[in-house]
């Protein structure tokens, strides 16, 4: 009688089980994504929210909210300040008055990105501090030619209430001081989100 330890059928069964186990682990190891239904994240109906506030960009005084962190070499004679980069932590207020209710902060940077005309590349997050939006954010990434009457920049995302956000922000200069560089910009932001 054949020894069961060396039986071909037991050996074949063992090899089949081993191969199936390896195939299953390989199949599961390279899966890093899967499709989900929006209901799995409790996403219901998409909403459109309009936000209105004033962006206070202060380069002067004892406590500026925008600070130059990079500048082109002095050999650059561009009238557009091409190459300059400012980091911002600007207050967002209800009215143009800087002492009005603070609803959030614009945090990020803007870079003077054109050699031909004044143009800013805006990379910033509006971080809200007021009411039901407290702790939520909206992210903006786009071109801002500040001397145009109205500038439009895309909303590229958000968090909190604004998770899965998309939309656009319109900026209009309320005041601009040529001597100090301080500015107050009116923003109308239209955000689609769940």
TrEMBL record:
Signal peptide range in chain numbering: 1-29
One BP term from GO: phenylpropanoid biosynthetic process
GO cellular component: apoplast
Keyword Cell membrane in record: no
Taxonomic superkingdom: Eukaryota
Subunit structure: Homodimer.
Protein name per the record: Dirigent protein
